[in-house]
Write a structure and sequence with these properties.
By secondary structure, the chain is α/β, with parallel strands linked by helices. The protein folds into two domains: 4-218, 3-Layer(aba) Sandwich (Rossmann fold); 243-309, no CATH class. The protein has nine helices and twelve strands. Helix 3 (107-115) crosses helix 4 (123-136), helix 3 (107-115) packs parallel to helix 5 (153-165) and helix 4 packs across helix 5. The protein binds adenosine-5'-triphosphate (ATP), iron/sulfur cluster and magnesium ion (MG).
């Protein structure tokens, strides 16, 4: 069995803007992969296309062009009916657990409902499985019979992870799973996710704005900016030496070294050149040329022609 679980190639997704018949590009030639059992961190500012990527992989939206393979088979071009048997394999956990539960179902009913995506189990087996799932996310039996409104945000987010695990998926897309939680609870949910990674071979795509979350849980990281992947690296390599000026600015915001500011706000790109050119302190004339995502060492890709000759990043500590 190949180690490659998901392969997204050249994904493009545009949305119509309300005015003027123009379209905005949410995914702009995105190529990423996910191996079995690994955790891929996805970082990038608001609007960079992270959720759109997840929704495309789960077939909640269709791409304009590009391919998405799951276990080697194309899933982007197939019909929703053909995709249905795969739905159990690809699951999602959303940022705000409170709005993602049916308020009239207990947690046990919710979990058993989510198991319907997999082959039939007896009632007793379903109950057993529900209890085991709650244990996996470090919630005790008493939560089985609670309703969503009787639980805290952190408890509900654990239950949301249990619900995603219920149909025995190969991958869970965790879309900012800790963003709506208090700092203290955030750490606990993250520890729980790490324990799950060790116990199961489920792969995760973990979206977070918080580099501490990414450092705590990801094996590899992709950094997105305005619909493009601008950097991809192992966690170790990225945290040791961020190379793309956008990644450097993200790290600089949370490190003790000198600040590397970006100028202004992200604005829609005009022209074929680097999307960051208007904001980047290192920009020169060559940045007006298209910047392909280029492999600079095995497993490491960067979308900046100057990445290797910029002054070393001063991180002090991150
Ligand atoms: N259904 C939609 N209709 C129109 N535009 C959309 C739609 N979904 C996303 N977009 C636009 O696509 C871009 C990418 O959105 P997306 O939600 O993927 O960003 P994100 O990286 O998840 O941001 P955030 O960190 O705020 O969640 C944004 O500019 C957004 O406004
Ligand atoms: S290509 Fe130029 S503008 Fe873009 S990130 Fe690199 S140095 Fe900055
Ligand atoms: Mg999002």
């Amino acid at each position: 069995m190949s180690t490659r679980l998901i392969e997204v190639r050249g994904a493009v997704k545009t949305f119509a803007l309300r005015r003027g018949g123009r379209r905005m590009t949410a995914l702009d030639d995105v190529t990423v992969f996910l191996d079995r059992g690994e955790t891929l961190g996805v970082v990038g500012e608001s609007g960079s296309g992270k959720s759109t990527l997840g929704r495309a992989i789960l077939r909640l939206i269709d791409l304009d062009s590009g391919s998405i393979r799951f276990e080697g088979a194309e899933i982007q071009a197939i019909t929703q009916a053909e995709f249905r048997p795969l739905r159990a394999k690809l699951q999602m956990v959303f940022q705000n657990p409170a709005t993602s539960f049916n308020p009239i179902l207990t947690i046990e009913e919710t979990l058993i409902d989510a198991m319907q995506l997999t082959p039939d189990l007896s009632r007793a087996e379903q109950r057993d499985r529900a209890r085991q799932l709650l244990l996996d996310v470090e919630l005790g039996d008493r939560f089985l019979h609670l309703y969503p409104h009787e639980m805290s945000g952190g408890q509900l987010q654990r239950a949301a992870v249990a619900r995603a695990l219920a149909p025995q998926p190969a991958m869970i897309f965790l879309d900012e799973p800790t963003a709506a939680l208090d700092m203290s609870v955030r750490g606990q949910v993250l520890n729980m996710l790490r324990a799950l990674q060790r116990k199961r071979d489920t792969a995760f795509m973990l979206v977070s704005h918080d580099l501490r979350v990414i450092r705590g849980a990801a094996d590899r990281v992709v950094v997105m900016y305005m619909g493009q992947v601008v950097e991809e690296a192992s966690r170790g390599a990225l945290f040791e030496r961020p190379l793309h000026p956008y990644t450097r600015a993200l790290f600089s915001a949370v490190s003790a070294g000198p600040r590397e500011h970006l100028k202004g706000e992200a604005v829609a790109a005009s022209g074929p050149g680097c999307r960051l050119a208007g904001r980047c302190a290192f920009a020169t004339g060559g940045c007006r040329d298209p910047q392909p995502l280029t492999e600079i060492e095995p497993g490491r890709r960067v979308r900046c022609w100057r990445a290797l000759d910029l002054p070393a990043f001063q991180k002090e500590h991150a």
